[in-house]
């Protein structure tokens, strides 16, 4: 069992790799890290380029975006956690995503990711997470097959969340499927997590902002008719007065 590469280091001595296919997001992360006096920041647009560079010079910490093409952030981390990756397998990872679903967090933990941050986030949030990782004394250990590294106490960490997550969704307290997955899922690296946005029912009132709400159509129609009648009478009186005053 071994500590991760950033354990016990000072913030100012870190070599950090940022992997994100968004240049604006790269600039934001680079600005935050430079503001913390981080020694070195390397940014990459794709997982493939980052993997090649990190294999030559393993960083102390990696900040990786989830949704990238063609290789996602989770797939990159699974490649890093292979036993044959050498020192790269011990690099701690912060996963950045705009869709921090329960399923994604479970897969991230099983992949050996130390922290998940939801976009958008404050600079202080990122700095706090980095400092917590520097003090994280959990060790990496090989799984039963000897092929992948995982963090010490991963299943125990997921189990502590089981009761709360199941309660929020009305599942039985002893239901482990949602949190831990099936027994076969626990023995192998998790598969890719597809992005499935929550369905949102269309709002029929958005297409026509002047459409009255249900139950108010008749009342609104009656009000418009009454207003039109009053206006016609006013116009008639005005026309009559103008005709009488004419020479």
Compact overview of the structure:
This protein is of the alpha/beta class. The protein has helices at residues 23-35, 47-56, 73-80, 102-110, 123-134, 154-168, 177-180, 183-186, 217-245, and strands at 2-3, 15-19, 40-44, 61-65, 93-97, 115-118, 139-142, 149-151.
Give the SSE map.
Layout: E1 2-3, E2 15-19, H1 23-35, E3 40-44, H2 47-56, E4 61-65, H3 73-80, E5 93-97, H4 102-110, E6 115-118, H5 123-134, E7 139-142, E8 149-151, H6 154-168, H7 177-180, H8 183-186, H9 217-245
Parallel strand pairs: 2-3, 2-4, 4-5, 5-6
Antiparallel strand pairs: 1-7, 7-8
Task: Please list the strands of the largest sheet in the order they lie side by side.
Answer: 3-2-4-5-6
Low-confidence stretches: 178-191, 193-213, 215-220, 241-247
CATH topology grouping of one domain: Rossmann fold
Instruction: Spell out the CATH superfamily of one domain.
Output: Response regulator
Apparent shape: extended
Element-level helix/strand string: EEHEHEHEHEHEEHHHH
CATH class of one domain: Alpha Beta
So how many helices? 9
Helix content: 40-55%
Number of strands: 8
Instruction: Output mean pLDDT.
Output: 78
CATH arch. level architecture of one domain:
3-Layer(aba) Sandwich
Quaternary structure of the protein: single chain
Radius of gyration (Å): 29 Å
Largest sheet: 5 strands, parallel
Structural class: alpha/beta
Measured between the Cα atoms of the first and last residue, the distance is 110 Å
Strand content: 5-15%
Written account of the structure:
This protein is 42% helix and 13% strand. It has 247 residues and is an alpha/beta fold. A five-stranded parallel β-sheet has the order 3-2-4-5-6, with helices on both faces. The radius of gyration is 29 Å and the shape is extended.
């Amino acid at each position: 069992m071994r500590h991760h590469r950033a354990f016990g280091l000072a913030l100012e001595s870190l070599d950090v790799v940022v992997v994100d296919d968004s240049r604006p997001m790269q600039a934001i992360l680079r600005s935050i890290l430079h503001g913390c006096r981080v020694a070195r920041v390397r940014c990459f647009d794709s997982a493939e380029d980052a993997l090649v560079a990190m294999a030559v010079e393993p960083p102390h910490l990696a900040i990786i975006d989830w949704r990238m093409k063609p290789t996602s952030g989770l797939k990159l981390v699974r490649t890093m956690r292979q036993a044959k990756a050498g020192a790269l397998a011990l690099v701690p990872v912060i996963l950045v995503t705009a869709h921090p679903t329960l399923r994604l967090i479970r897969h991230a933990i099983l992949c050996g990711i130390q922290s998940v941050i939801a976009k958008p986030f404050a600079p202080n949030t990122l700095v706090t997470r980095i400092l917590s990782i520097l003090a994280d004394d959990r060790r990496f250990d090989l799984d039963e097959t000897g092929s992948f590294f995982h963090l010490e106490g991963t299943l125990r960490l997921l189990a502590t969340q089981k009761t709360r997550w199941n309660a929020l969704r009305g599942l039985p307290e002893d239901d482990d499927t949602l949190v831990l997955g099936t027994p076969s899922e626990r023995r192998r690296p998790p598969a890719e997590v597809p992005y499935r946005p929550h369905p949102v029912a269309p709002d029929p009132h958005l297409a026509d902002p002047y459409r009255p709400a249900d139950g108010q159509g008749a009342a609104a129609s009656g009000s418009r008719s009454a207003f039109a009648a009053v206006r016609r009478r006013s116009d008639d009186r005005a026309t009559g007065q103008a005709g009488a005053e004419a020479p």
